[in-house]
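Worked example

This section walks through a single chain of length 167. The input is the sequence exactly as stored; nothing has been trimmed or padded.
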Amino acid sequence: MFFDNDNYGFLLEKLKAYSNEFDVSVITYCLMPNHYHLILKQNSEHPLSKFIQHTFNSYTKAINKRYRRSGTLFEGKYKAREIYDTKTILEVSRYVHRNPLDGGLVKNIEDWKYSNYHEWIDSRNGSLCNKKFIKAHFPNTEDYKKYVLDYYSFKQMINDLKKLKYI
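Given that input, the structure is written out below as tokens.
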């Protein structure tokens, strides 16, 4: 999905542009070498499926042109689940932000630059996140760091998410 580091930045630019066009708030994201995670909030009547379609069709076309390839980058249709309660959004955000750490890509979660974990902990001033949502639930960035790194709670959360069929 990502052939070099520039691809990550390009996709982030697409996410930002289309989130503005389709009035979508990005709550959490993490781009991994072979997949991505997005937690999005639909703010208008524009369906999230159109946002996803435009973003990733545009990305695929650009990648195919740059690398002189053809076809799709993704297997099958994207997977989406509606989340209705804040507790689950926070748990899934933790899961998403932990992905590079749990996947063995980094030893320190802060070393992965292709997620908005840095915005959640105020170590980067990016705009692909809903800062009001973050501050409403974690006014102190140290609380979110602890929440994400709390392994026991994470393991319990994984079991809960599997039961709810979110993963």
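What to look for: The two ends are 20 Å apart (CA to CA).
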